Amino acid sequence: MARDAKTLWVRTPTARYPVWVGAGLLAQSGRRLKRLRPRCRQVFVISSPRVWKLWGARLSVGLRAARISAEVLLMNDREEAKRLMTVERLAEKLLARGADRGALLVAFGGGVVGDVTGFLAASYMRGVDYIQVPTTLVAQVDSAIGGKAGVNLRGGKNLLGAFHHPLAVLADVRALDTLPAREYRAGLYEVVKCAVLGDSALFRFLERNMPAVLARQPRALRTALAHALRVKARIVGRDVHERGERRLLNLGHTFGHAFETLSGYLGLRHGEAVGWGIVAATQLSHRLGLLPERDARRILRVVASVGRLPPLPSAKPERVHAQLFADKKKAGKQLRFVLPRRIGRAEVVAGVPRSALVATLGELGSRL
Ligand SMILES: NC(=O)c1ccc[n+]([C@@H]2O[C@H](COP(=O)([O-])OP(=O)(O)OC[C@H]3O[C@@H](n4cnc5c(N)ncnc54)[C@H](O)[C@@H]3O)[C@@H](O)[C@H]2O)c1
Ligand SMILES: [Zn+2]
């Protein structure tokens, strides 16, 4: 086993599973899998044509090294394909190939493949085991762990889903080498998010090592990812169903979702919207007297060090404000913000005055 692989554990009341992070782990996938499930009879890798073309050979070598023979089922991994129809098609293929309750699925791809496979695993024959082998930064730092799986409805994202934890998560940072630069940077804002809300040591690491992280140096990346994953694993372990603490992981997302919607999902990637969302939450927190100026400056500096964020959709602060409330009103809920209180600590805050919100949105720049 590679000595430089890090193992973290996600522990929830119903599940306990390892998350392996390191460079070159695809080649060890079979050996690691066998330790968890000595009898791997029916293994099905679910992936996308692109991911399979880029990294399929490495995964196959890893599986074959442990004498695991797997069948590969490919799916379209565009967000539009994250629908129940895709789950159904895959389930029909599993059945046609004789998959029973002992089947093991391997989600090999980005968040779309991971969410679809997780949901497929949760529902096929009322539940089969699966492992996550995430290949994007977003999937490695965020979607592969936590057990949330699901697909989109016409009326909104991730509205049809389940909680189903994987048996293990294997994150090979090498796989990130082929990610387009913009995709990679967008994922980094989720790493920054974890640092701001829960890990001051990771924050300092990012302050000092952003160039190495941007250059995708395996060691820097492994350290950053392992820390960020630990933040998520800790929080998810205490609050699987998102009733309390797990909300903290939404830092930057309340603003972010509004920006994403206003940009019609086209202009801004999710991670970039979160980047802007962290900026907005930081400025709002400082304005409300909840975050010292020095910490606010440090957060803004780290966000800026990831790169230049694309401009926000052109909308007046009032329009963004209305968008912020749109979803909550539908659900009859209060609007809550996750606000940083100092580096490494955040808090859920309700009842933020409209004037403070509009002023913050105005301050975000003339592009708003
Ligand atoms: N379940 C959760 O907790 C959770 C959390 C965050 C996001 N998500 C979901 O994740 C999805 C977004 O995931 P994503 O950002 O990983 O994007 P994605 O899955 O859409 O992948 C983006 C693109 O990158 C390609 N790709 C994947 N790996 C690659 C690699 N190694 N090299 C080159 N190209 C590669 C894919 O083929 C795709 O074209 C959304 O649907 C979102 O709702 C879920
Ligand atoms: Zn996110």
In short:
The termini are far apart. The protein has helices spanning 29-36, 49-65, 84-96, 111-123, 137-143, 181-198, 200-214, 218-238, 253-262, 270-287, 293-306, 317-331, 354-363, and strands at 6-11, 16-22, 43-47, 70-74, 104-109, 129-134, 148-153, 156-163, 168-172, 336-342, 345-350.
Keywords:
about 375 residues; alpha/beta; 7-stranded mixed beta sheet; two-stranded antiparallel sheet; 11 strands; about 50% helix; globular; binds nicotinamide-adenine-dinucleotide; binds zinc ion
User: Helical segment tally?
Assistant: 13
* Beta-strand percentage range: 15-25%
Largest sheet: 7 strands, mixed
Number of strands: 11
Rg from alpha-carbon coordinates: 20 Å
Structural class: alpha/beta
Protein architecture, described:
This protein has 368 residues and is α/β, with parallel strands linked by helices. It is built from 13 helices and 11 strands. It has helices at 29-36, 49-65, 84-96, 111-123, 137-143, 181-198, 200-214, 218-238, 253-262, 270-287, 293-306, 317-331, 354-363; strands spanning 6-11, 16-22, 43-47, 70-74, 104-109, 129-134, 148-153, 156-163, 168-172, 336-342, 345-350. The protein has a 7-stranded mixed β-sheet, sandwiched between helices. α2 (49-65) links the parallel β3 and β4 (70-74). α7 (200-214) runs antiparallel to α8 (218-238) and α9 packs across α12 (317-331). The model has no long low-confidence stretch (mean pLDDT 92). Zinc ion (ZN) binds next to α10. Nicotinamide-adenine-dinucleotide (NAD) binds at residues 48, 50-51, 54, 77, 79, 82, 109-113, 115, 135-136, 138-139, 142-143, 146, 148, 157-158, 175, 178-179, 183.
